[in-house]
User: What shape does this take?
Amino acid sequence: MYTKEQAIKLLQDNNQEHVMKFFDELSDENKSEFLTQIENINWSDFKLIGDTEAASRGEFSVPPAVEISEIEKRHDEFEAVGIEALKKGEVAAVLLAGGMGTRLGFDLPKGCFNVGETHELFIFQCLINNLMDVVNQVGCFVPLYIMTSEKNDATTRAFFKEHNYFGYNPDYIQYFVQDMACAVDYNGKLLLEEKGRLATSPNGNGGWYASMVKAGLDKDLKAKGVKWINIFAVDNVCQRIADPVFVGATIAGGFQAGSKVVRKVDPQEKMGLLCLEDGKPSIVEYYEMSDEMAEAKAEDGSLLYKYGVILNYLFSLEKLDDIVNNNMLVHVVEKKIPHIDEDGNHISPESPNGYKFELLVLDMVHMMDSNLAFEVDRVREFAPIKNLHGVDSVDSARELLKKNGVVL
Ligand code: UTP
Assistant: This one.
């Protein structure tokens, strides 16, 4: 562990010595925790701040896809392949629940939010109910791994236990904690969460497999004979998880990965689009897209690039092992970061006040050699909860749940 002097030197070299302001007030235990945190700062991330130069992109083309009409025709064939893989225990599911969910403004982990109106129906419960459909269909439990962060791990575990795992078999549930990264203000200055603690946040949704390996769970996956991992976001309450038809279509097509997508209808819609870039799977965020690309038309007059990703992906475990040590791009993301000011007062900002450093799952998709876009019906499978009201909100998700016959 660093000594106080070593920490000060390191901080001075990086123009960050302000974080030592309260050091002498700390308990011995807190001092050593703080010094360890300082020792582990990843300074290379800081160089990315203010780097506005967009990375040069390759040549885009339309990715291989199965659209709803084709899926309907080949439903039984795909489903049979998927069911076989699920029955053999080759498919696991990973719930990405490490995010801070700041837009929702809810104190507990997002999955603990109650979307019910006349009875309790938590977001976690919706997801487990959806997964139980598959469990009941194939007759066996799907191993479920839940990624938490150090901020919400204990609460998430306690919540599942308290609610009896919403009927899931707890022997098939495991948790792992994702890594954290520092947060800084708009001038690149480290923020303090407490007098003896740097403000940190979960390091994005792209570090999940590396975190699983760190937790030793790759061995568990292999011991179980898992070959495919379906990762999914906590906030889409309608999505089908470990969906046999999706799994089967990806396997039957000989793909390394599959992505559930919904069809973009308006050129300006804000969604990340799945494409091929120089022949490799690639996701282009709406803010990176030129108008020309957003509006490009196919021969039949529909949008050429129309497969919007919904954070529900299937990855081959073998390929994940290949890429786990690859360096991933670090993204600088503007967020609201609670912190203390120079007098030690706690500040909970109402709007973004700085940057977090995040790894994103879309960069994992780009590392796959092949990926199938699998179209799903937006009304049936896309009800993300980001905000309380408005677009992608509790209100819009409730409407969609009702349309899908869920009693709230
Ligand atoms: P979002 O991009 O919506 O981020 O996450 P968020 O942090 O949950 O929400 P805001 O932006 O603060 O409102 C998409 C999915 O990725 C997970 C989230 O839990 C959600 O399932 N995620 C995100 C992680 O698991 N870890 C992260 O570090 C970030």
Q: What stands out?
A: The first strand starts at residue 60 and ends at 61.
